[in-house]
Amino acid sequence: MENRSLVTIADYSKEKILYMIEMAKKFENSPNRKLLEGKVIATLFFEPSTRTRLSFETAANRLGAKIIGFADPKATSSTKGEILKDTIIMVSNYADVIVMRHYLEGAARYASEISPVPVVNAGDGANQHPSQTMLDLYSIYKTQGTLENLNIYLVGDLKYGRTVHSLLMAMRFFNPTFHFIAPEELKMPEEYKLYCKEHGIKYTEHVDFNEEIIAEADILYMTRVQKERFTDLMEYERVKNIYILRDKMLENTRPNLRILHPLPRVNEIAYDVDDNPKAYYFQQAQNGLYAREAILCDVLGMTLEDIG
Ligand code: CP
């Protein structure tokens, strides 16, 4: 049987990305469609989440599906020692799709290999977050009118930030120029820089974050320093407030610039940026609903034609 899981954005071709954007557009035009009546979606969140879980659950509700799952693994039998394999096999007896966030890198891949129903990776450790990437791509497409030839600045925790890893991989088809802005401790990992080299993706690395550096940006993608991934909390304390975007830094930026952030933000975007028309992070999170409606339909085998 074809495995329709979404584990990594690397599974998507350029055509598939553009197709999923078309699907998301349809759901933005009309989010309430009872296309998944009779289906059950399981949301298994072994790590905290606000947007990803609630937008997947809202997507399921708007599509007429029912939802089971948990937001807190402490309330499940994993605290009694149940292993992930057994949990996945059990839940696949109840649900038609499993949406899972897990703290272990590779957990979603493993789940997809043992599950008879599709698995959607809602974030696995510092590895990948492909549904976030689809909403990021949709947001970039909506605000720039294209995904091609953009200057994309990734700022902050590029070491542990799974959203930047997924976004970088997805953009390989669209001739981007990346700027990686991070302190030494949080630099883009070598494996992703190697990925850029193998796929002809241009990038420059910076340690400074200031007005001059971001003057040519089309997309400024801010990220939170991922406290939960640090083994040494002293190191976290040293870098946690290293970059803060303030409204006055945006004065000489391009008119088409949009500021994205997967959220939650901690200190990296000052509140005075929120009223700047270039701030797009809350609309970006809203786009997550439409992108996730598209993903749920797609993993269940529905096509653009079915959606109508
Ligand atoms: N962007 C994102 O993954 O947010 P949550 O952790 O709130 O789901």
Commentary on this structure:
With about 300 residues, the chain is an alpha/beta fold. Strands 7-6-5-8-9 form a five-stranded parallel β-sheet, covered by helices on one side. A four-stranded parallel β-sheet has the order 2-1-3-4, with helices on both faces. Helix 1 packs across helix 5, helix 3 packs across helix 4 and helix 5 crosses helix 6. The longest helix is centred in the C-terminal third of the chain and has 19 residues. The mean pLDDT is about 95. The protein binds phosphoric acid mono(formamide)ester (CP). Phosphoric acid mono(formamide)ester binds next to helix 2.
Radius of gyration: 19 Å
Counting H and I runs of at least 4 residues, what is the number of helices? 10
Q: What are the segments in which pLDDT stays under 50 over at least 5 consecutive residues?
A: none
Strand order of the largest sheet: 7-6-5-8-9
> How much of the polypeptide forms β-strand, as a percent range?
5-15%
Question: What is the typical, i.e. mean, pLDDT?
Answer: 96
The proportion of residues forming helix, as a percent range, comes to 25-40%
Identify every distinct bound molecule in the structure, by name, code or SMILES: phosphoric acid mono(formamide)ester
Helix/strand order, N-terminal first: HEHEHEHEHEHEHEEHEHH
* Large-scale geometry: globular
